[in-house]
Amino acid sequence: QVQLVESGGGLVQPGGSLRLSCAASGSIFSVDYLGWYRQAPGKEREWVASFPGGGYAEFVKGRFTISKDNALKMVYLQMNSLKPEDTAVYYCNYMETYWGQGTQVTVSS
């Protein structure tokens, strides 16, 4: 089994920053297979960023950075220059199979 726990969400003003964390445990082969998705109200879940290679969705390129700590089995998402349209529940994902419970990010003045 795989357990994923996200944290770090919250309310931030436009232009602000947040850092999300995902703690992975259980049968994790490699943190390289962890990534981030998000789901805004009324919209489908969409891919945001993942390894390997640090790929990013076009709408976050240059603003978000994914990073990892192999020893701690952690993945992070540094989000800068946040926009209201970034408001969503952000999910950690492993091998496109396992999901965390999500963490809410709200960008609003």
Question: How would you describe this structure to a colleague?
Answer:
The chain is mostly beta strands and 109 residues long. The chain is built from no helices and eleven strands. Strand 4 (34-39) and strand 5 form a beta hairpin. It is globular, with a radius of gyration of 13 Å. The model has no long low-confidence stretch (mean pLDDT 94).
Topology, please?
Elements: E1 2-7, E2 10-12, E3 18-26, E4 34-39, E5 46-50, E6 55-56, E7 64-69, E8 74-79, E9 88-94, E10 98-99, E11 103-107
Parallel strand pairs: 2-11
Antiparallel strand pairs: 1-3, 3-8, 4-5, 4-9, 5-6, 7-8, 9-10, 9-11
Radius of gyration: 13 Å
* Proportion of strand residues: over 45%
Shape: globular
Question: Unreliable runs, pLDDT <50, ≥5 residues?
Answer: none
Note the gap between the termini: 40 Å
Main pleated sheet: 7 strands, mixed
User: Fraction of residues in helices?
Assistant: under 10%
Secondary-structure element sequence?
A: EEEEEEEEEEE
Number of helices: 0
Q: Count every beta strand, where a strand is a DSSP E run of 2 or more residues.
A: 11
Mean pLDDT: 94
Q: How would you classify the helix and strand content by structural class?
A: mainly beta
